């Protein structure tokens, strides 16, 4: 079964992670690419993401997807809200009939250590002491999910998104999103070296 993880958040919202084991031909029987993508791995990831949306909601109209000036894919009809992410041989997607959504999937890699000061504020680094590589990847992924949920671009990860609470038991974090002046709850799962985050709001 290529669906690695599936989660029915409620009757209107569902997410999944697809482990890509198929070739491009498999996906091309069901979906087309939104644009020309030269890199074969990126093209495969893109097609798997589009396929996953339809897998989660069979009536999802892939052929009606438009792309905003910021790069966010969306449906003019607003019959569904959705978000897609990919990394290596994983594609993640979340679809909702009613709420704006954002999703991100990241591999835990040591390079996040060096990047941390670019996306974490001094207050966050002070508040969450001794963050390890997994936690740093999680925090990065949280901010990517918020970025995608917002969809308009122009977000400074250090100053616009402030993570202030982490509940490992509930697998949730709370951040304050200064662009909208609201708190946002971001859920997550960690599978070995893969971090998945999502937001429904
Ligand atoms: C645009 C961005 C979200 C794409 O990320 P990526 O590394 O290619 O990773 P992902 O695979 O997780 O996401 C790609 C998907 O994001 C979606 N996406 C792209 N731009 C988007 C946007 N502005 N809003 C919402 N979703 C967007 C698309 O669905 C895309 O997949 P598709 O082209 O197959 O449909 C990301 O590169 C980015 O710009 N992040 C912000 C970085 C930043 O501002 N950092 C500053 C602090 S260091």
What does this structure look like?
This protein has a five-stranded antiparallel beta sheet with strand order 7-11-10-9-8. The model has no long low-confidence stretch (mean pLDDT 96). The chain has two domains: 3-99, 4'-phosphopantetheinyl transferase domain (Ribosomal Protein L22, Chain A, Alpha-Beta Complex), CATH 3.90.470.20; 106-200, 4'-phosphopantetheinyl transferase domain (Ribosomal Protein L22, Chain A, Alpha-Beta Complex). The chain is built from six helices and eleven strands. Strand 5 (81-87) and strand 6 (90-96) form a beta hairpin. The protein has helices spanning 24-28, 40-56, 111-119, 122-127, 133-150, 157-160; strands at 3-10, 13-19, 65-67, 73-75, 81-87, 90-96, 101-107, 161-167, 172-177, 182-191, 194-200. Bound molecules: coenzyme A (COA). Coenzyme A binds at residues 46, 49, 70-73, 83-86, 104, 118-119, 144, 147-148, 151, 153, 155, 157.
How many helical stretches? Answer: 6
The SSE string, one letter per element, is EEHHEEEEEHHHHEEEE
Q: Give the cofactors and ligands.
A: coenzyme A
Class based on secondary structure composition and strand pairing: alpha+beta
Which superfamily, in CATH terms, is the homologous superfamily of the largest domain? Answer: 4'-phosphopantetheinyl transferase domain
Q: What order do the strands of the largest sheet run in, or round the barrel if closed?
A: 7-11-10-9-8
How many separate domains make up the residues? 2
E-strand count = 11
Mean pLDDT: 96
């Amino acid at each position: 079964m290529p669906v690695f993880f599936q989660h029915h958040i409620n009757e209107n919202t569902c997410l999944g992670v697809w482990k890509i084991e198929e070739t491009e031909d498999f996906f091309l029987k069901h979906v087309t690419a939104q644009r020309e993508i030269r890199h074969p791995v990126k093209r495969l990831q893109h097609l798997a993401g589009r396929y996953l949306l339809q897998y989660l909601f069979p009536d999802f109209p892939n052929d009606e997807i438009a792309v905003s000036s910021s790069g966010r894919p969306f449906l003019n009809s607003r019959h569904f809200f959705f978000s897609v992410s990919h990394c290596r041989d994983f594609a993640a997607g979340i679809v909702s009939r009613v709420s704006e959504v954002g999703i991100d999937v990241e591999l835990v890699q040591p390079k996040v250590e060096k990047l941390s000061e670019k996306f974490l504020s001094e207050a966050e680094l002070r508040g969450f002491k001794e963050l390890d590589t997994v936690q740093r990847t999680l925090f990065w992924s949280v901010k990517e999910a918020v970025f995608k949920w917002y969809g308009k671009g122009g977000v400074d990860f250090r100053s616009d998104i402030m993570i202030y609470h982490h509940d490992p038991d509930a697998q949730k974090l709370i951040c304050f999103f200064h662009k909208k002046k609201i708190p946002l709850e971001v859920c997550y799962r960690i599978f070995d070296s893969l971090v998945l985050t999502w937001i429904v709001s």
